[in-house]
Amino acid sequence: MAIERGSNVLSQAVLTANGLGVMRGDRTLFTGVRVSVCARELVLLRGQNGAGKTTLLRLLAGLSTAESGKVTRTAPHHWIGHRKGLKPHETPATHLQHWANAWGVEPDMVHTALEAVSLLRAADVPTGHLSQGQQHRTALARLLLQDRPLWLLDEPFAAMDDSGVAMIKSRIEQHCASGGAVIAAVHGDYGLTPSQEITL
Amino acid sequence: MNARPVLSAFRQALQEAWAGGAGIFLPATFFAGAAVLVPLGVGVDNALLRSIGPGILWVALALSSLVTMERLFQADLEDGALDLWLQTDLPISAYAAAKTLAHWCVAGLPLALMTPVLGILLQIEPAKLPMFAAGYAIGGIAFFFWGGVGAALSASVRRGGLLIALIALPFFFPTAIFGARALQAGTATSPEALYLIASALFSLSVAPFAMGAALRLAAD
Hints:
Largest interface: A-B, 22 and 25 residues
Largest sheet of chain A: 5 strands, parallel
Structural class of chain B: mainly alpha
Number of helices of chain B: 9
Helix content of chain B: over 70%
Oligomer: heterodimer
Number of helices of chain A: 6
Radius of gyration of chain B: 18 Å
Radius of gyration of chain A: 17 Å
Largest sheet of chain B: none
Number of strands of chain B: 0
Strand order of the largest sheet of chain A: 5-6-7-3-8
Low-confidence stretches of chain B: none
Order of helices and strands of chain A: HEEEHEEHHHEHEE
């Protein structure tokens, strides 16, 4: 597939990782994994359940440390994991306001982000009362709160309806087209055109 | 360091405590219950009550500070909020300190404010009650921060409440010793009172780093 390469600055690696290895007990989860992602690239992580996709993403995000290898990130990143970071008493609006505040983002961005993930109608419902898909949309809205070059997404399509899948797909494509980079663990195809696929 | 993330962490922890419902009254109820049981148990010898009363309140305060400690970091670990905090510019020890301070405001400060009432029950001289309440408030800070270390270390342990007590109680000893002596001395500027304040400051300056290291391990 053809990927437009911009200037040297754009094609500089946003994240590189070499020789990553993880042990779980005395079992080797994976070893010698190499990840390198540049601006405008979409990297898909593939593998069966339990292959270590989430573990690898957590390594790349700096949430855990590997037995071997090194991760270098050169740009700020967003993280969407299985555990979405929502409090049951928070509404999508207060959740985003909280993180906008913590990250030093303009509060106006909250409305924009809610609109982008089609959550305006449920904006004031406590997340404990929302469906899985709506909770997931709330977490995804954090991606749009602040512009960060690298997105690390753990199964972004989980629990999403058709319009949600289309929305996330177009967001990922837009992000890459505007010079961002995405690393996502996914099952299935979803019509994405990845620059690389890493199979664990 | 930018103060905004710390304030957001503090505010979220406060909101969570309020939204948690009756949970915030648990330590206060436990505290009152434990303090009221003592006169019932030892009888109504006023002189005896007056001499053991302040100590009883220290013991009750130490134990009630641990009542709701278990969920301090566990909720954030389970719902993924801790992962997000670990990926901000804010040092994780600052987040831990903000959470613990918010928990003290909601669960610890009310205990200190209750001591004048319970003190009357235990025959403590009314004139001494305000100074005693201040002593219990300061000692409570130390108890909550050491308890927070236990909470961070056992955040990934199911039903780790008792474990927290085992980890934290030895760290309560200096505060309990200086606290009891300070109340006996009875003035705010006595060396014992200064040592009590020092023990609270020590917990404030050391415990957040221990909590931060423990939380990094818990998320790994």
